[in-house]
């Protein structure tokens, strides 16, 4: 029975599908209705929420577990993990301190405490130097022309410092064989793409002619081999085969460097026909926890990560197609009345704030019931069908396309067809068992046409291989 399954291996790392977590949450919710003063139920449901990225709910449950029993040490662990996932390192440190105080001989707890303490100190240091002088760009300290490519490097090189289709094909093959692009070429791409992105508005507006179509993809999350599969199924990007990738290119999957350099390369090759929007994972806090920063440091350097961070800050936040379809990573807003003009005016070259339209675009989720609720993630909000309806009406739009949530079928149509989710990382984190999907939109009718696909094999490097040790799945 399912109960037995929870007892015997809920904490094991072996493949849990999305359904199992959902069932676990349902089971503990029922158990809590019968016995609302059981700290273990709250704590165990908190873990299921952590695994499904509902960090807001996970935090609430861990807090509840401690309200029920303030001596329940696992509750402090869970609350610390939730806060870490939310980037609230100081709050996490306090709970790790408690655990270490109560269990001075617990080596695992000590390690977590030290790791968290390191991050808190590092953040304090970064804040101190940031206020000293206005931050200089990494670009100014690079001497790319002067970087030499060693004779034994036989991989792809830009041609006259330009990305070409030949270069892109060679680079994709090179990456497929798990080889590293020369750092000079990586820097060339980054510096050039920063320049291209910084000239775009925060809200990109495009028009498809009657005969044209665009492909919209959702989260790719470092799943490079699945990205190649999209190109195989749907054709390589080109002037006549435009794409829009809707954020969350990096983190989680351990081939994030390959994904992002491929996407940036195509942006340089087809600046007007290949579109990228920022996701909540194109941010420093997420990259520090979920693998991208670690991966760039492992494959290149900390300095290159700094440059990635600068480039991410210039990614546009939303895209409007034929004045009728609005695409963004997360969703709509914590307050009514936001207009497209407000989006155009967002000063986006920054880490996202904790609230407001920029935060909502990257973080919010739809919900089935009317109105708004507290976010299950602990950031931004959830918005109902009435919110979507009012927003579309005020801005004379037909529907929104967003990503940000794994869906079993790769996509989901909600809010009477006015809010569409698309997610393009099949078998997310090697464990969700979901399909991926992409959408075709044609200029003639703007009717979404869904295409599903399943995961392809990838080399034996697990997701989150470069993530902060505190976030690696086995340790939650
Ligand atoms: C809660 O999870 C723990 C593992 O952390 C497990 O051993 C225990 O059986 C679970 N309790 C319940 C009541 O499901
Ligand atoms: C290349 O680097 C060397 C050593 O740092 C420096 O002396 C030289 O001026 C640089 N050349 C160019 C073209 O910038
Ligand atoms: Mn996301």
In short:
With 476 residues, the chain is of the alpha/beta class.
Class of the largest domain, according to the CATH hierarchy? Alpha Beta
Which strand order do you get reading across the main beta sheet? 1-5-6-10-12-11
Tell me the number of helical segments per DSSP (H or I, 4 or more residues long).
18
- Architecture of the largest domain in CATH? 4-Layer Sandwich
Biggest pleated-sheet summary:
6 strands, mixed
List the SSEs and their pairings.
Blueprint (H helix, E strand, L loop, with lengths): L1 H8 L8 H17 L4 H13 L3 H14 L4 H13 L3 H14 L4 H26 L5 H4 L23 H12 L6 H16 L4 E4 L6 E5 L6 H11 L8 E3 L10 H14 L4 E3 L7 H7 L1 H8 L2 H11 L5 E4 L3 E4 L11 H5 L12 H7 L1 E2 L5 E3 L6 E3 L1 H10 L4 E4 L8 E4 L4 E4 L13 E7 L6 E5 L23
Parallel strand pairs: 1-5, 2-3, 3-4, 6-10, 7-9, 10-12
Antiparallel strand pairs: 2-13, 5-6, 8-9, 11-12, 13-14
Helix pairs in contact: 2-3, 3-4, 3-5, 4-5, 5-6, 6-7, 9-12, 10-12, 10-15, 14-15
Bound molecules: 2-acetamido-2-deoxy-beta-D-glucopyranose (2 copies) and manganese (II) ion.
């Amino acid at each position: 029975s399912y109960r037995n399954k929870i007892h015997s291996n809920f904490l094991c790392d072996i493949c849990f599908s999305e359904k199992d977590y959902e069932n676990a949450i349902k089971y503990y919710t029922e158990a809590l209705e019968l016995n609302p003063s059981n700290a273990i139920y709250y704590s165990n449901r908190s873990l299921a929420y952590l695994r499904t990225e509902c960090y807001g709910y996970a935090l609430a449950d861990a807090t509840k577990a401690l309200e029920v029993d303030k001596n329940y040490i696992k509750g402090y662990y869970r609350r610390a993990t939730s806060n870490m996932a939310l980037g609230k390192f100081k709050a996490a440190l306090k709970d790790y301190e408690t655990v270490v105080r109560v269990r001075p001989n617990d080596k695992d707890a000590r390690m977590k405490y030290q790791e968290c303490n390191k991050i808190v100190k590092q953040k304090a240091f970064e804040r101190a130097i940031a206020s000293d002088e206005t931050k200089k760009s990494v670009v100014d300290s690079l001497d790319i022309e002067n970087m030499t490519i060693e004779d034994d490097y036989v991989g792809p090189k830009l041609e006259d410092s330009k990305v070409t289709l030949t270069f892109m094909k060679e680079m994709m093959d090179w990456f497929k064989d798990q080889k590293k692009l020369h750092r000079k070429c990586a820097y060339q791409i980054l510096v050039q793409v920063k320049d291209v992105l910084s000239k775009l508005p925060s809200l990109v507006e495009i028009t498809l002619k009657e005969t044209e179509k665009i492909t919209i993809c959702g989260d790719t999350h470092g799943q490079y081999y699945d990205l190649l599969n999209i190109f195989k199924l749907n054709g390589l990007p080109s002037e006549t085969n435009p794409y829009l990738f809707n954020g969350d290119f990096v983190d989680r999957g351990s081939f994030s460097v390959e994904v992002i350099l491929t996407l940036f390369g195509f942006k340089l090759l087809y600046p007007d026909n290949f579109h990228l929007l920022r996701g909540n994972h194109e941010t420093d806090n997420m990259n520090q926890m979920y693998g991208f920063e670690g991966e760039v440091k492992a494959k290149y350097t900390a300095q290159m990560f700094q440059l990635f961070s600068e480039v991410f800050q210039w990614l546009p936040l939303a895209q409007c197609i034929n004045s009728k379809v609005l695409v963004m990573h997360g969703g709509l807003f914590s307050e009514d009345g936001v207009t497209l003009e407000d989006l155009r005016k967002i000063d986006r070259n920054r880490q996202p704030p904790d609230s407001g339209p920029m935060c909502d675009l990257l973080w919010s989720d739809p919900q089935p019931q009317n109105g708004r609720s507290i976010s299950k993630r602990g950031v931004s909000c959830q918005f109902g069908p009435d919110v979507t309806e009012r927003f579309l009406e005020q801005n004379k739009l037909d529907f929104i396309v967003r990503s940000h949530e794994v869906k079993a079928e790769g996509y989901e149509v909600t809010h009477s067809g006015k809010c569409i989710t698309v997610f393009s990382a099949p078998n997310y984190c090697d464990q969700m068992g979901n399909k991926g999907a992409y959408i075709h939109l044609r200029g003639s009718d703007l009717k979404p046409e869904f295409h599903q696909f399943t995961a392809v094999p990838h080399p034996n490097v697990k997701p989150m291989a470069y993530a902060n040790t505190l976030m690696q799945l086995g340790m939650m």
